[in-house]
Write a structure and sequence with these properties.
This protein is an alpha+beta fold. Helices cover about 20% and strands about 40% of the residues. α1 packs across α3.
Length: about 150
């Protein structure tokens, strides 16, 4: 399940052009449907990548091969200098059903539950690496961020 209100910066619209198109579309040559991608931030791009990754992992018949093709490391150097090995992965679904924030002039939180159509879902995927002395749980976002150029 993914946040249906999240559009990843895609939008479709009609607009006039000063050049003709002959693509066999059922519209006048001066109108053309375009899809544009407008990246809003690295965080939004990572959200799109993680959602696609989780969907692909779920659908993959061979999970190990999927991880290898995706470049997920099966071994990492741990903070103790020992090699850590990938032993587990988990996908957790969460639904945000409200928000709470500090209230003005109060020690209490201001709580706002969402109406049903505003409830959003998100999934996180965690990879567990272990060595003889340490365990490290890495979120998919962390792994992708390591590989994404600045």
């Amino acid at each position: 399940m993914h946040d249906p209100s999240y559009s990843a910066g895609h939008h479709h619209h009609h607009h006039k052009h000063n050049h003709g198109h002959d693509h066999g579309h059922n519209h006048t040559p001066t109108e053309h449907l375009h899809s544009h991608f407008h990246p809003h931030s690295d965080a939004e791009e990572l959200k799109v990548l993680t959602a696609a990754f989780v969907d692909g992992f779920r659908a993959a018949e061979d999970k190990t091969s999927y991880l290898r093709l995706a470049g997920i490391p099966f071994n990492r150097k741990g903070s103790d200098g020992l090699i850590q090995h990938l032993v587990d992965t988990s996908i957790v679904a969460n639904w945000q059903i409200g928000t709470a924030s500090p209230a003005f002039a109060s020690r209490e939180l201001a709580y706002m539950p969402f109406p049903g159509d505003m409830v959003t879902s998100r999934e996180t995927m965690t990879f567990t690496y272990v060595s003889l002395t340490t365990r490290q749980d890495l979120d998919l976002v962390e792994l992708l961020a390591e590989r994404t150029p600045d």
